[in-house]
Amino acid sequence: MYIYDELDRTLLSERVSEFRGQVARRLSGDLTEEEFKLLRLQNGVYLQLHAYMLRIAIPYGTLATPQLRMLAHVARKYDRGYGHFTTRTNIQYHWIKLEQLPNAMADLASVGMHGMQTSGNNVRNITTDQWAGVTPDEIEDPRVWAEVIRQHVTLHPEFSFMPRKFKIAVGSASHDRAALRIHDMALRLHRNGAGELGFEVMVGGGLGRTPFLAQTIKQFLPTRDVLSYVEAVLRTYNQFGRRDNIWKARIKILVHDLGPEAFAKEVEAEWLPIKDGQLVLDPAVVAEIRSRFQYPDYERLEDSPKELKDARAADERFSQWVDNSVSNHKVPGYAIVTMSLKPEGGTPGDCTAEQMDAIADLADRYSFGEVRVGHEQNLALPHVAQRDLYALWRGLDRVGVATPTVGLVSDIISCPGLDYCSLANARSIPLAQEITRRFHDINLARDLGRLHINISGCINACGHHHVGHIGILGVEKNGEEFYQITIGGRADEKARLGTLIGPAVRYGEVADVVEDIVAAYLELRARPDEIFLETVERIGVEPFRERVYAAR
Amino acid sequence: MTSPLDKKLKITGPVLVTANRTRDGAVIYRTGDGGWTTEFGRAHVVTSAPAATELLQAAIADDLGAVGAYVAPVSMQADGSRRPGNLRERIRLAGPTIEMPIASGEPVAVGI
After folding, report:
1. What is the mean pLDDT of chain A?
2. Interface contact A347-B98, CB threshold 8 A
3. Which CATH number fits domain A413-549: 3.40.50.300, 3.20.20.70, 3.30.1490.20, 3.30.413.10?
C-alpha cells in the first residue's frame, strides 16, 4: 500500500476548492459550457447519455480498504449505489450530479483519491499488473516505477495539453497481465546480461480506429534514466504529434508514420541533452518512494495447509473456485485471490456499494487491508493466507463475487456501450450478459478453458475488442446495431490483433455467432488442452469462417 | 469546436431538440414556449429545417440551463403518439436497456 504525504493531501485539497469554485461559477452563469468543459474534464467529469460521469483514478490499481469504503460511500450518497470498474483500472460513476460533484470530490480527497488526469490530453492513470508485488514471476514491484512516473507527470504543465491522451503501463513479470503492447508507452522491467535493472521501452500501441501494437524502441533503459526518457518521448510526441485531426493524433500514428527507428532517433536526440541533467533518478528518491509502499508482515506459513486440503475435500464448489480464482503468491502459505465482477447475467465491472463494503471488510480480515483492480474488470485480494481461503470464499460467495469463471468464456471485458456512453454506436453490456447465460454451464466453460471475449460499443475500443480471443465491435448501419467479430487477438506478452472472420451480424445474432465459434473450436482443437487461441494460431481464421458463416 | 449550428440541418421527418440539464445532467427536451422539460411528450416537435434551426438556436442560446443541445429524430406512431426516433434516443429517454445493479434509488428514466 502506498502512503501519501502532506504534499499530496494539500494538492488534493486545493484542487477540490478550485473545482468547487469552478462549478459554482458554471451554475451561476459566470462560466460558459465551452469554458467549463475543459475544467471539468481535467477533473474526470464527462457528460454521458443520462447524466454526468465521474471517473476516479486508481493508480496502478491499488486500493486501501478506507478508499474502497469511500468509493462505496460515494456510490451510495451521490450516485445510484454502484460503480463501474474500467479497463484502465479506474472506477466510474454514471449518475452523478454536477451540483453535488464538489462534495463527492472532497469526500474522495479525504482518502487521497481524485479524478485528475482521468480525462483530457495528458498522461492518464498509470496502470500495471494487478498482482504487482506479490506474484512469483516478477522481478520487482513495478508500482514503485509507476509511482515515480506518476509523481513526475501529475499536473506537469508541459504535458497537460498534448495532441491527445497518453496511456502508460509498467510491467515486470514474465507473464504480461498489464496489456503492455496496447499502450501509448509501456515499460517492461527486466535485467540485462550484467544483471542490472532496466526497462524495455515500447511506444505507439493503441487500439481505437487504427489499432497498433507498441514497438520496442529501446531494449534496455537503465532505471536511473526512466524519467528523462519518458520526458523525451513525451516531448517528441508533443512536438511532432498531429493536432489537426483527432483520429490521427495519438502517438501510434506518429510512430507508424515515422517508423519506430526514425521515431527512436528523434527521441534519442531529445533525450541525450537531458539524460544526465536534473531528471537523473537519485537512488535516495527511489528508496524513499519504495519505502512508502508498505508490505504486510507475513507470517511464516506452509503451502497447502491442512485446513485448505480438508475444505477442498469437503466442498466441491469451493474446490472449483480455488482451481479457478486462486493463484500462487511469492510468499509460502499465501495466495492471490481474484474476485469476479462477472456474475451470470451481470454487467462486467459493476460493483455495488454493499459489495464494496463487504470486500473491504473481508480484505481487512484476510488481505491486510489491500485490494487490487485489474484491467479485466475484476478485483483481487493480494495477500490471503491459504488457511483462510475457505472462510474468505464463503464471504465472497455471499456477496456474489466468487463466480469461478475467471479467464473463462464468461469473464467478458466490456465497455459500458450505448446503455451509458455518448460515444457508443451500439450496446455492449446486454450482449455480455446474454453470452454469460449461454455459457452458464460451468463444466462446459471449464472444458473450453481460457477464452477471453472483449466487447466494445464503438470504434474507440474501450472494451479492447482487437485483443480479445473473440472480439466484438458494435457499429451502426442505417440506424441499426451491427457487430463485427474478430478472433485470435491477445493482450499478453504475445500480443496480437484479432482478424475479422466475416461480415458484421445483427444484435440478435451475436450470441449465436459466439456459440458457433465455440462449437467450431471444439470440433477443430487438436486435443482437449489446446486452448482456443492456440487452435486459431495453428489453423488460422478460415476454418472458423467457413463453419460460422456457412449457414448464414 | 464546431457548433451544431455550423452544420446544415437535413430534416426528413419530425424532430425535436434535446440536451442535458446543466445542474444534474438529466435528459431534457425543448418546449414550444422556450423552456425545457424532462417529459418527452411535452417536447416541441417540428418538421422543417428552418423550424428546427430556430428551435436549436434558441436552445443553444440557453447555455446556463442546458448542455450539448442537438436535433434528434422523432417517430410518429399510427395512433398519433410519438416515440424517440432511434435507439440512442430511446435509451436516453427510458434509461439503460439492462437491469440496474441496484433496484432501489431514483427512477432511471425521466418522463414517459
Report:
1. 97
2. yes
3. 3.30.413.10
- A512-533 residue pLDDT tens: 999 999 999 999 999 999 999 9
Closest Cβ opposite residue A99 in set B23, B63, B87: B23
A110-130: per-residue pLDDT in tens?
999 999 999 999 999 999 999
Predicted confidence (pLDDT) at residue B110 exceeds the cutoff of 60: no
Instruction: Please report where in the chains the cell 422556450 appears, as a residue.
Output: B34
CB–CB contacts below 8 A, A to B: 81
Q: Write the DSSP symbol of residue A213.
A: P
Superfamily of domain A142-291: Sulfite Reductase Hemoprotein, domain 1 (3.30.413.10)
Model pLDDT, residue A1: 62
CA angle A474, A476, A482 (to 5 degrees): 55
Q: Is the predicted ipTM greater than 0.85, yes or no?
A: yes
Helix (H, G, I), strand (E, B) or coil at A331: coil
Which residue from A minimizes the CA distance to B18? A49
User: Domains of chain A: which residue ranges?
Assistant: 6-109, 142-291, 306-398, 413-549
Supply the pLDDT for residue B108: 39
Average pLDDT over residues A450-455: 98
Residue among B23, B25, B87 minimizing CB distance to A47: B25
pLDDT 10s digits, A31-65:
999 999 999 999 999 999 999 999 999 999 999 99
Fold match, A6-109 / A306-398: yes
| Pairwise CA distance, residues A272 & A266, whole Å | 10
Domain ranges of chain B: 16-94
The dihedral over CA atoms of A530, A534, A535, A541, expressed in degrees to the nearest 10, equals 170
Would the pLDDT of B1 be above 60?
no
Q: Do A51 and B24 touch (CB under 8 A)?
A: yes
* Residue B103 in this model has a pLDDT that exceeds 80: no
Architecture of the structural domain at A306-398? Alpha-Beta Complex (3.90)
Q: Is B105 on the interface with A (CB under 8 A)?
A: yes
Q: Which CATH class is domain A6-109?
A: alpha beta
Closest CA to A187 of A169, A173, A204: A169
Res B6: pLDDT: 67
Q: Do B98 and A429 touch (CB under 8 A)?
A: yes
Question: Given CB atoms, is B102 within the 8 Å cutoff of chain A?
Answer: yes
- Inspect the interface and report whether the beta carbons of A479 and B87 lie closer than 8 Å: yes
d(CA A42, CA A26): 15
Contact: A98, B108; criterion CB under 8 Å = no
Q: Name which of B3, B102, B108, B110 to mutate to probe chain A: the one with the most chain A Cβ atoms within 10 A of its Cβ.
A: B102
A50, A76, A412, best to mutate vs chain B, most B CBs in 10 Å: A50
Which region holds residue A455: left if phi is over 0, alpha if psi is between -120 and 50, else beta? Answer: beta
Question: How would residue B4 be classed by pLDDT, with cut points 50, 70 and 90?
Answer: low
Is the Cβ pair A50, B108 closer than 8 Å? Answer: yes
Whether B103 contacts chain A with CB within 8 A: no
Do residues A425 and A506 lie in contact, with contact meaning Cβ atoms separated by under 8 Å?
no
